[in-house]
Design a protein that fits this description.
Helix content of chain A: 40-55%
Oligomer: homodimer
Distance between the termini of chain A: 23 Å
Radius of gyration of chain A: 20 Å
Low-confidence stretches of chain A: 189-209
Shape of chain A: globular
Number of strands of chain A: 11
Largest interface: A-B, 90 and 90 residues
Strand order of the largest sheet of chain A: 1-2-3-6-7-9-10-11
Order of helices and strands of chain A: HEHHEHHEHEEEHEHHHEEHEEHH
Strand content of chain A: 15-25%
Amino acid sequence: MIEKLIAKIEEKKAPIVVGLDPALSMVPPHILDEAVSRHGESLEAAGEALFEFNKSIVDATCDLIPAVKPQSAMYERYGLPGLMAYKKTIDYCHEKGLIVIADIKRGDIGSTSQAYADGHLGTVHIGSKEFAPFDADFATVNPYLGSDGVKPFVEVAKAHDKGLFVLTKTSNPSSGEFQDRMLAEDDKLAGMPVSGASVYAGRLSNEAEDVRKPLYEYVAQMVNIWGQESLHGDYSDIGAVVGATYPEVGLRLRKVMKKAYILVPGYGAQGGKGKDLKAFFNSDGLGAIVNSSRGIIAAWQNEKYRDTYGEKDFAEASRRAVLDMKADIASSVGL
Amino acid sequence: MIEKLIAKIEEKKAPIVVGLDPALSMVPPHILDEAVSRHGESLEAAGEALFEFNKSIVDATCDLIPAVKPQSAMYERYGLPGLMAYKKTIDYCHEKGLIVIADIKRGDIGSTSQAYADGHLGTVHIGSKEFAPFDADFATVNPYLGSDGVKPFVEVAKAHDKGLFVLTKTSNPSSGEFQDRMLAEDDKLAGMPVSGASVYAGRLSNEAEDVRKPLYEYVAQMVNIWGQESLHGDYSDIGAVVGATYPEVGLRLRKVMKKAYILVPGYGAQGGKGKDLKAFFNSDGLGAIVNSSRGIIAAWQNEKYRDTYGEKDFAEASRRAVLDMKADIASSVGL
């Protein structure tokens, strides 16, 4: 799957993903009013409004971008009708030729991660029939449970030609509380008090001499291991999430994970700047894809665009914001 | 909310939660056949079969137990119809007077965690109306993103009288890969390379002299901090997940998190034994609630029960398994 994403990035000349993370507060009143007129003030109205909002933005931007990243939380917030909008959004983006990165940040014990992977990336069998319930192309995965929480996703991705981005260093202000903690120098096998020692011994023993590093760097090393059998050319289907808000970390992890594509959230509304993005890319101009959510989909509310675009032109404002983001990244990264 | 859970535990004399984590392979054929006869071989049939299976087990066990823990993955596996079964299961368990712990293991950047918390524990406003989309009583939360990923859940729990269990040391074999890593002794503020330092400085400075400990113990200390404003009597609405499979860790974390209720997965099918559970309880016989999923809901397939209970009596087998679990815990923990 990663080679398909790269081909689309090259075709569109845009290492950009639009985060479809809508909130009702971003939806122009005429769209919500229309939905309420059909469904009353209800979760169904909210779900329909989110989908119609997404659809207009996708229509206005799909020729410019390779991929979208719907954030499952924004749909779960509105219960089943919200999740219906989530599924319709995935299907509509596929119709428009876009790659869909499901930002679900799931991760659980093995048999449970298997169920998430089946549902979001893979298929299930019911009697003689096979279904792909959500059918995203990539999913984000939380690594806190270790290899047996991640590997079912890796295996399902391999079987169905899909991919992952594993949370490594997230873009939020408090991501360092746990992810930046420095690990003890003598934390080799003896330092692993209960579990995980055997996995660790088997997989990372070559690195045992080089132990003092932040937790996120260990996660990055595991991303390399998890992805080593999923290579397509220079890159693996198993990538990583590293926030635009921490460019020094990006520079370091770009070197640690040579084969991992990096999904970079935090550009724009969260504070990540174009000039900081170069750190995340390889010299071939590949290796990273930058997400903007609010910066694109709520552009019509941004003072930069709101004098030019009214609420009826919200999708055109999003298109303008994509073009501006593309130019910012091209000039900063040197594409 | 924690005081309600404790009252139910005391009323039923059972610190037990039944994990409603159904797979189609556990559902007796007559239930699946009935669903397929109505909906064909479809995701709808799968969803209906999961709900009917759950309903029978809840009917057969609800007088014995205080709470259930549906695992969202098992429902997401079957897409929207699966999630419809998830929501119907929550509502049905509430009708039967059970407390519902949503095992969703969500966790994201602040604004996104807010959306998850609103949807799963809180409410949303649409025009003049307010809805509680999933309306669980507790949710499990993944701490990898740090305080700003957890606090929206804490605040929503406070506003709506709900609770959390934060993943601290999970029950799976590879949980130690990251959770057990020993942190460096000199990892005080200078050791926090980029972010999180200010949060850490403000919140944990009293503990700065005592730094060398595994990551899960830092998470446990943060659980104390996150829960300090949510106390009801001896316990906080903000609890922790610690796996039955690591009783030494349970013994340690029981002392570290004096006010946190511990949700203990991993009993039974995952290998946790009754005799190991004492570590997780306080001397008042409270402080922990033990989950069993497959051990209860798939009891009819277990060699211990399958000669006595046929596939039509699967719910009675689950009832027997709850009674056996209750006796095992009572004798081990000394309740």
